[in-house]
């Protein structure tokens, strides 16, 4: 039986992909002889990206339980170099979906080209 550390190392690419697409990990532990990853993502695109990565690591899914759910209403903190298009590409897979983020944040944005570092944006 593999240890928690062994399974975590094996599925590290999945965890990294999760961070890239906005996975909020709620639980990461050993459940029986399987690695349990439980969390929420902001979009179906993000969920599919994580599942694609899981299948690359082990398509049989023999030693992992992935409970990944889509939850709207998550937020994202703007980092240096971000644009709404970059954020949309990261979370939705399409830069042209920037308008979804802009529309959800009209209470704090008047122009989609004017976001500030540190700003908390809602991800619809």
Structure overview:
This protein is an alpha+beta fold. 37% of the residues lie in helices and 25% in strands. The protein has helices spanning 4-10, 12-20, 44-57, 84-92, 98-104, and strands spanning 24-31, 34-41, 64-70, 74-77, 120-123. The strands form two sheets. The protein has a three-stranded mixed β-sheet with strand order 1-2-3. Strands 4-5 form a two-stranded antiparallel sheet. Helix 3 links the parallel strand 2 (34-41) and strand 3. The longest helix has 14 residues, at 44-57. The mean pLDDT is 96.
Describe the structure concisely for a colleague.
The protein has helices at residues 4-10, 12-20, 44-57, 84-92, 98-104, and strands at residues 24-31, 34-41, 64-70, 74-77, 120-123.
Question: What number of domains?
Answer: 2
Overall shape: it is elongated
Q: How much strand content do the residues show?
A: 25-35%
Give a count of the beta strands, DSSP E runs of length 2 or more.
Answer: 5
In the CATH hierarchy, what is the class of the largest domain?
Alpha Beta
């Amino acid at each position: 039986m593999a240890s928690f550390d062994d399974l975590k190392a094996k599925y590290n690419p999945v965890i990294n992909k999760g961070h890239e697409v906005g996975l909020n990990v709620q639980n990461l532990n050993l459940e029986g002889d399987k690695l349990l990853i439980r969390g929420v993502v902001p979009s179906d695109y993000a969920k599919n990206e994580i599942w694609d990565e899981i299948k690359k690591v082990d398509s049989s899914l023999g030693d992992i339980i992935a409970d990944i759910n889509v939850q709207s209403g998550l937020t994202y903190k703007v980092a240096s170099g971000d644009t709404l298009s970059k954020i949309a590409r990261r979370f939705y897979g399409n830069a042209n979906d920037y308008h979804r983020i802009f529309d959800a944040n009209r209470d704090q944005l008047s122009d989609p080209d004017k976001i500030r570092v540190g700003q908390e944006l809602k991800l619809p």
